[in-house]
Specification:
The chain is of the alpha/beta class. The chain contains eleven helices and 17 strands. It is 36% helix and 30% strand. The strands form four sheets. It has a six-stranded mixed sheet, with helices on both faces. Helix 4 (199-206) packs across helix 11, helix 5 crosses helix 6 and helix 8 (286-303) packs across helix 9 (323-331). The longest helix has 27 residues, at 104-130.
Length: 383
């Protein structure tokens, strides 16, 4: 399939190429930004038969960027959660001279120390959980989400005095080899402006001013979880189960190939099967669904900083098409997890990220597989 992307000549238009390289698919979106409006020019989704979807994803990315009649102004890419990670780290600083007013020089030194310490802590925690050495990871972003002075939130430290400073810091990092190879692919294709963005960075402006919520990105091999309170991301993590376990269960039980199993799963999600076959599919998928639900509960217990979780739950990613995920989140038996109200589960669509400012020319606004790509664009657009 050959795709041609033709761009206008007006200087005020900016074009973005956004690529989301997942565990089994590559999603790309070409966006045109003109003033406050953003239009979807084109999009594509390719599944990979190869075992190494990352290598296949880079090859596809090279193909796509060579098809442009004109190079996009910016190339944004994000990787699967196992390759590009985001963690919220808590840091504390005790001032030796609490009675002294903080000036700009001291505030800058504090921020530098806090961000450096947050990166070190994130790298050490990742090493303990994965065995990956800190020297093998690369940080792409570090951002302070919350700062307090002696327990009280403050917009800045200059002009204040106090002893105990506390911070919540979002750190984004990935395996150095993956990041460097992906960046080189873009640059070899002639794209000079390349940015690595985690979807958590898109949630920072998205959740501002919105009610508390839990966001769940159901991918192929992994599920990303984001907890938002008081207009900010409080915690984010992942676990290694996704909708591929459904395809695997279908393949093993029915004795069909993996690609045929995925196609059958998609027909089930589209409600294109007979009632009897759909019922059989629901029974077949019950076991992997329970395993996913139990893993989600364990992860939420690790992430939660209070006994109550928000009742609003948003799901997105390829797994959001399957009705089973929404049903178990609404009706499943939660163990030792209490919500402020009955779980209210909705799908987070691309059209929800930018609202009325997003115009679609490629029919993806109601496809939750593209939500992560739009979130990464939202992060870059908001900077």
């Amino acid at each position: 399939m050959k795709m041609m992307f033709k761009f206008g000549r007006r200087r005020e238009k900016e074009f973005y190429f956004v690529a989301d390289i997942g565990s089994e698919a590559l999603k790309t979106v070409v966006l045109r930004k003109e003033g406050a409006k953003t239009s979807v020019v084109s999009s594509s989704l390719d599944y990979f038969h190869e075992q190494d979807a990352f290598e296949a994803g880079l090859s596809k990315l090279e193909e796509y960027v060579k098809m442009f009649d004109r190079k996009p102004h910016r190339c944004i890419f994000t990787l699967r959660p196992a390759q590009l990670l985001a963690r919220v780290v808590n840091r504390q600083v005790e001032r030796p001279t609490p009675g002294k007013t903080i000036d700009q020089k001291e505030a800058s030194a504090i921020f530098e120390k806090v961000q450096g310490g947050a990166k070190k802590m994130a790298a050490e925690n990742f090493f303990q959980n994965s065995g990956v050495l800190p020297s093998d990871i690369q940080f792409t972003n570090s951002r302070i989400l919350q700062q307090k002075l002696d327990g009280y939130p403050v917009p800045k430290f200059e002009g204040y005095s106090g002893k105990n400073l506390s911070f919540k810091v979002l750190t984004v990092f990935g395996l150095k080899s993956f990041l460097q190879r992906t960046e080189n692919t873009c640059r070899n294709a002639g794209l000079s402006s390349v940015k690595v963005v985690h979807e958590a960075e898109g949630f920072l402006p998205f959740v501002s001013g919105k009610p508390d919520a839990v966001f769940i990105d159901i991918g192929g091999e992994e599920t990303g979880v984001f907890l938002a309170r008081r207009g900010r991301i409080e915690a984010t993590d992942r676990f290694a189960l996704g909708s591929q376990s459904f395809s695997q269960a279908i393949s093993e039980t029915l004795g069909v190939g993996f690609q045929d199993a995925r196609a059958l799963k998609e027909r089930y999600a589209d409600r294109a099967l007979s009632e009897g076959v759909s019922q059989r599919m629901a029974e077949l998928l019950h076991r992997p669904l329970r395993g996913w639900f139990e893993s989600l509960q364990l992860k939420l217990k690790e992430m939660a900083t209070s006994n109550l979780l928000p009742s609003k739950i948003y799901i997105f990613g390829g797994g959001a098409f399957l009705p089973d995920f929404k049903k178990i989140l609404q009706e499943g038996k939660w163990q030792n997890i209490v919500f402020v109200g009955k779980p209210d589960v909705k799908t987070l669509f691309p059209k929800d990220t930018l609202g009325a400012s997003l115009q679609d020319g490629a029919d993806i606004l109601n496809n939750p597989q593209y939500t992560p790509a739009l979130l990464t664009y939202y992060a870059e657009k908001s900077n």
